[in-house]
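Entry type: protein chain
Record version: 2
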Amino acid sequence: MNANVDLTGVVLETDRLIIREWSEMDLEDFFEYAKVDGVGQMAGWNPHTSIQESKTILEMFINEKMTFALELKENHKVIGSLGLETLSLLLRDEYENLVGRELGYVLSKEYWGKGLMPEAVNRVIKFCFEQENYYYLMCSHFVINSQSKRVIEKSGFRFVKENTQIARDGHEYISLYYVLDNPLKKN
């Protein structure tokens, strides 16, 4: 079951990142990384072709209040996003009546391989479990996306299921799904 999400006013920090809600001032940074070939395709969306396209999606992020902007402390540039998405796969049995969310994330290609996404994901996990009291979080990645797989493994998720899904770009992908239980909720 989907947990309620409202990230209004939430600011989280790591050693290198400020994890916060999106602002209209972030448009240029967002378009800069979202237009790069190879970034969006890993998450099932095509590169942005105009700043207007990025503006429309940025407005959605602001209005929905469930996606964080990832701001690099050293230069205050937004380099990615991390969302508490609607669950794309419902888990049965022990998860049926428990609240959780699915993490979805993207990072500017310029910052791949520097450990920034695991840093962000682990901070958001802590927020979801300690402040929001979620029972679990889910994550998934396309079979072809080995970078996301590494982030998921580094963050302690366990594999639960393979499934096909239709992505935003209209293509069908094989996805691997993982879950992480809140250790504070275990008996």
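Comment: The radius of gyration is 16 Å.
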